């Protein structure tokens, strides 16, 4: 038995990854609908070996689907997710619109799967920020073994986190530096090619950005509100894949070898950690992969019970589309939703 599924924002980077991953993991789909804005109506997107024509968001009848994967941005989600939820399906929303809503569960299946019990309150589940997803996936098994009291995180976030426009700008500026075009910033506040920008989002009154605040607020909601967390988010000239330098302080001593063993046994994590010139993972290595990779696990000698580690993941996959699909799988596995009937036969 299988589900009727709609992907809203099907023409975007994450929307297309959602379609790819639904097919890749063979999620039980009886009908698949690609939904986009009116200007994208009729555009074609791929789902496996099928071609779907995008349907207009404003005209689509959401009462005829079971699950909606939403990746059309915060404003579209604010305008539509609650309406869609009231029509019957469960919305898995990739934007920040409902992440801190107390009536909306915020879920990383490897971290807090039990939160799915609250999915029916508004028929909305929020997908966390891409950088938060990989962070809490790595923190959770360590926190279970030795409580984390403090974390210091610096992110190195790829331009795909800013959408297709961000990727286009890196490509255009890189060519321009070699005399092949205009390098004037448009999407980012400063040149991104051959540069790093220590600013993502908007500044808050406390000097942090809202991107940084998302990471500690979401970590507190999903993992533990008592963890003290400070974050610096940096945009780097990488097309796909977010990296994080993470320093953790625990309430008891934890040796690097113990941490490696814990992480190797944890779901969704791959440990690649050899003290060799290439014994770690980079964003290029992680691109196209499902796992959260952890490398360079070592003692932090500046505190009593500290460890430092390097965390890398494909932000379009585990940081967005894959996590959303895993939430859909969780809904199925827990019986939170029931198949509408029918077998795998894609409606185009």
Structural summary, described in words:
- The chain has 348 residues and is of the alpha/beta class.
- The chain folds into 2 domains: 3-128 and 321-333, Rossmann fold (3-Layer(aba) Sandwich), CATH 3.40.50.720; 131-314, Dihydrodipicolinate Reductase, domain 2 (2-Layer Sandwich).
- The protein has helices at residues 13-24, 74-87, 130-145, 164-177, 210-222, 256-264, 283-286, 317-333, and strands at 3-8, 29-36, 44-47, 50-53, 55-56, 67-70, 90-93, 124-126, 148-157, 228-235, 242-250, 269-271, 292-300, 306-313.
- The strands form 3 sheets. Strands 5-2-1-6-7-8 form a 6-stranded parallel sheet, sandwiched between helices.
- A hairpin with a 5-residue loop joins β13 and β14.
- α3 crosses α8 (317-333).
- The chain starts with a strand and ends in a 15-residue tail after the last helix.
Task: Tell me which CATH architecture of the largest domain applies here.
Answer: 2-Layer Sandwich
Secondary structural class: alpha/beta
Give the termini separation: 19 Å
| Beta strands, count | 14
Order of strands across the biggest sheet? 5-2-1-6-7-8
State which percent range the strand residues make up.
15-25%
Q: Supply the CATH class of the largest domain.
A: Alpha Beta
Mean pLDDT: 95
What is the element string, with H for helices and E for strands?
EHEEEEEHEEHEHHEEHEHEEH
Report on the biggest sheet.
Answer: 6 strands, parallel
* Molecular shape: globular
Helical stretch count? Answer: 8
Low-pLDDT ranges: 343-348
């Amino acid at each position: 038995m299988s589900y009727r599924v709609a992907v809203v924002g099907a023409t975007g980077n994450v929307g297309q990854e959602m379609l790819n991953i639904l097919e890749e993991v063979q999620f039980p789909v009886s009908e698949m609908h690609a939904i986009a804005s009116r200007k994208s109506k009729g555009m074609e997107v791929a789902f496996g070996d099928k071609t779907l024509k995008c349907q207009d968001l404003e005209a689509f009848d959401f009462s005829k689907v079971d699950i909606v994967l939403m990746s059309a941005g915060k404003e579209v989600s604010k305008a539509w997710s609650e309406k869609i939820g009231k029509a019957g399906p469960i919305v898995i929303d990739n934007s920040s619109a409902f992440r801190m809503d107390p009536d909306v569960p915020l879920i990383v299946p490897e971290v807090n799967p039990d939160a799915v019990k609250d999915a029916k309150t508004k028929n909305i589940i929020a997908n966390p920020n891409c950088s938060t997803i990989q962070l809490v996936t790595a923190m959770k098994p360590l926190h279970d073994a030795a409580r984390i009291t403090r974390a210091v995180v610096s992110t190195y976030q790829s331009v795909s986190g800013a959408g297709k426009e961000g990727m286009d700008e890196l490509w255009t500026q890189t060519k321009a530096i070699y005399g092949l075009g205009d390098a004037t910033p448009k999407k980012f506040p400063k040149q991104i090619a051959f540069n790093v920008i220590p600013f993502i989002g908007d500044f808050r009154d406390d000097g942090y950005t809202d991107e940084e605040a998302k990471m500690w607020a979401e970590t507190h909601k999903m993992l533990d509100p008592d963890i003290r967390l400070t974050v610096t988010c940096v945009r780097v000239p990488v097309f796909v894949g977010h990296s994080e330098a993470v320093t953790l302080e625990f309430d008891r001593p934890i040796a690097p070898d113990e941490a490696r063993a814990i992480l190797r046994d944890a779901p969704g994590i791959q440990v690649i950690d050899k003290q060799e010139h290439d014994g770690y993972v980079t964003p290029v290595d992680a691109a196209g992969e499902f796992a959260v990779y952890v490398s360079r696990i070592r003692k932090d000698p500046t505190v009593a019970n500290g460890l430092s580690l390097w965390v890398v993941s494909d932000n379009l996959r585990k940081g967005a589309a894959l996590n959303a699909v895993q939430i859909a799988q969780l809904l199925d596995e827990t019986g939170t939703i029931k198949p509408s009937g029918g077998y795998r036969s894609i409606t185009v």
